[in-house]
Amino acid sequence: MRLACCGMDCDACTYPGNCPGCREVCGKPFWTAYANIPVCKIFDCCANEHAWANCGKCPEVPCERYFANPDPYMSEEDAKKTLEKKMENLRSV
Q: Rounded to whole angstroms, how far apart are CA atoms 5 and 54?
């Protein structure tokens, strides 16, 4: 499993494009253009500010950054399930 900083399993991503993963694109995955941000705030904090592989050891996870850019195409229930899966992934590493 290729794990993004936030706990997303990059190998399980269903984005139809050709995204190699957050770390490989330096925190600038496809969706940052839609959110009108230069870099993922979670990646920036985790990788750039703290030099961590992921947020798994952060005492604040999930922090406000996890809720800053919700997927407008995802229901609240699906967003909650996705967050739970991310937290599960982070606990497993």
A: 4
Residue 5 lies in a domain: no
- Number of compact structural domains in the chain: 1
Considering the entire predicted model, what is its pTM?
0.89
Q: pLDDT category, 19, cuts 50, 70, 90?
A: confident
Long-range pairs for 12-20: beta carbons < 8 A, 24 or more residues apart = none
The answer to whether residue 83 is domain-embedded is yes
Residue 41's contacts (CB-CB under 8 Å, 6 or more residues apart) are 65, 68, 69
Residue 21, SS3 per DSSP: coil
Can you give the residue range of the structural domain that contains 19? 10-91
Distance, in Å, from the CA atom of 24 to the CA atom of 22, rounded to the nearest integer, reads 5
